[in-house]
C-alpha cells in the first residue's frame, strides 16, 4: 500500500512538472504581439527604429533587440539567420529572394515610408546649394569646384551603395572620398572641417542624439539640383511628399521568419496608424498621412447670452 502511494505521488509530481513546463513554454512562445526577437537595422535609419521599438514594447509584451549595422553587414547577418527581420532602404534582389525560397520561406516585404540621402557642409560655407551632377562627376574621379572632398559613413553602407549606383562606379576614387563608420562620425567631421561634403541618411539630421546637438548647429543641409532639373530642392518632408527631392528612397521591413511571429506584428504596427505617426513626427514621409480628428464645440444660445 505504501509503495502504491509513493508511485502515485511520483506520477502526480511528474504530471505537475510537465504541466508547469508546458505552461511556461506556452507563455514564452513568440506570437505577433509577444515574445523576444532581434531586428537588423540599416544604421542610417537607427533613430527612427529606436522610437518605433520603444513604443511597440510599451504596448505589448514584447522584447525587441535592435542591431544597427551597415547595409551590407545587415544582409550578411540576415542571410546567416542571425535574425530574419530587417529594416532596409531597398527590397531584396532576385538572388536573395531565391535563397529564401529554397528554404521554403516566402519573404514578406512591407513598405513603411520614405527617407532621403542628404548632403551637408560646414556652417562656414556660404553656399548651401549643390548640383547632383557635380557630386557624381567627383565620385567618378573628376574634380569639381566647391567640393574639397566627399565623406561617407561606411564603405558598406546604403548611402555608399546608392551613390555608387548613381555614379555608375564599382570602386571609389582613391583621392577625395572618405568613409568612417557611422552617420554620427560624418556629421562630426563635416562640422569641424570646411569644404567637405557629407553624405548621410536624413533621419539622423531630424532626430540627432543629444551628443550630436552641437555638431548639428555647425552644419548646413544643402538643397540639391537633380540631373535635368533647374530647381534646387531641400530634403524636407513636403518635398518628399511632392516627389521633388532627387535623392528620396523607400523604406521596407522585410520579414523572413517563415511563421506568424513578432516580425509580422511589428511590420503591421509600423505600417499602421501609430507607427505612421512616429514616421511623420520623425520628419520622414509615411506611406499614408495619419488622419486628424477635429472636434468642434459650439456654445449653446444660453451660454452666449
Automatic annotation (TrEMBL):
**Domain PBP, first and last residues per copy:** 35-272
Which PROSITE patterns does the annotation name?
PROKAR_LIPOPROTEIN (PS51257)
Pfam families named in the record:
PBP_like_2 (PF12849)
Q: Which Gene3D superfamilies match?
A: Periplasmic binding protein-like II (3.40.190.10)
* InterPro entries with a match to the protein in the record: PBP_domain, Phosphate_ABC_transporter
Query: What UniProt keywords apply to this chain's record, in alphabetical order?
Result: Signal
What protein is this chain from?
Phosphate ABC transporter substrate-binding protein
Protein's organism:
Flavobacterium hiemivividum
